[in-house]
Design goal:
single chain, alpha+beta, eight-stranded mixed β-sheet, 15 helices, 18 strands, 31% helix, globular, FAD/NAD-bd_sf, glycerol metabolism
Amino acid sequence: MIHPMNRRGFSQPHYDAIIIGGGITGAAIAYELSCKGAIVALVEKGDFGGGTSAATSKLIHGGLRYLKNLELGLVRESLKERLRLSNIAPNFVRPIPFMLPLYSYKDKWLLKAGMEMYDYLSFDKKDTLLKENALENYDYYSAKKTLIREQDIRKEGLLGSYIYHDCQNANAERLTLSFIKSAMQYNTEVANYAKVEDFIIKDGRVKGIIGRDLINDTPIKLLAKVVINCGGAWANDILQFKNAPKTDKATLRSEGIHIVTKAIGGQHAIALVTPKGRHVMVLPWRGHSIIGTTDKPYTGEVDDWKVSKESIEELIEEINACYGDGQLSYKDVCYYYGGLRPLVDHQTENTYDQSRKHEVINHTADGYPGLYTVEGGKYTTSRHLAEIVSAKLSSEITLENDRQKTAKIPLFGCKITNLHQYHEYLKLQFPYLSQHMLWTFIGMYGEESESILKRFVNEEHNPTLLNADGEIITQVYHAIENEMAFTLEDIFLRRTGLGTLGKPNTVLIDMVSVILQEKLGYSDLVITQQIENLLTHYQLLEED
């Protein structure tokens, strides 16, 4: 398979659109515009999907809780996009059963109405291209059956539970990357570690950007008909450039963190309400559990934010108050992650009740025609948001009028018509590899799995499996050579799962460091700094 990410950088004298930000929103817009014939450049100051897009609960869902605020349109949009993402990325977006434990008759009847409405709004949930990805209607479990299925559910006062289905996106960073790859197949040009420093103004219009390629330490100057600010939590910072609108609009941001622990539940994603009235989830993931998320307002500088020990302890306290034996401790946390969500709804008093609506701002009224900012939204609806942006740009750039093209075409590496048949095919090709390992690769790489595994066999790389998922050192070579991985963080946290179930051991870090240094020619000083940067993601686990 030809890897579109082999090329990095920009070759055109002029683009139709420049996109600032390589998270899921920027990636989806790049794919949408390039599919419609636009010449697109995308710049990302860090790594693709390294911000808010990497801080999700790893779900593609309709947003059941939005029914509480009667946001039926948002829920229906999300459910439609859940189906479309399941169809264009079936190896990434897979069904997962949710359990809602019931402890009061009021909740039982209110949630029954919610279940009925959710099923009604997702009437097409069985219309998946892959039958194995079709979703079932909701069901009710008695208290006895609930406890048989999930033994850690609190027994006191339990009436039963509702079971419904949404989808899990176990490899959110790699799905974002697949959007980038798909855009590049349509000739979008991209660069990560390319920082925008200002806009170019000509004839009273935003005509491009200037910045710096942080990998090569060279200047960047790109021209385009329109510039689209998809900076996510950093969007307002971008609007503070010298040649920018300098909006004084206060950006509301929500802090969300997750912790990864040993497996503390069964096969259901369990949605719980804490005694404080907050919603938290326990999600099965790679033989472990993800617990989250928090939802706290944050008003400081975006680059200053990081997960705190206090936030982790608060989350542990909340989950202990409503789930299990109440003995989950800080020592049980093997990994943590988080991010800031930009919000556009200012009508509610707290960030949890905020809508996940989006906003597309045309800065012509601010005196900066040619500049657009995209704010808010959620991972699930990012592809549809890209369609909306495309429609708003149709008067500024020439686009093919092919509606919902990106809703129909499988993403790069995702043209699999039957996952189980593909798994059987890989078993025939690699009979000595475990079934679990093959499923890991299908979930991460889709159709790319075969070529990576062939290389593993043919080049006789170290045959040692690097974790329980069956990941191998060949993935490191693939990430560097074909996926624009430039740092240890890129490799351990986003291209592979080698660093997201706990702190990697020194032997593994050294092994990957040697390959990175050999492939990219880094000095010992650079590698030492990269190791230090990687280890900061685990420093809270080592505190007393």
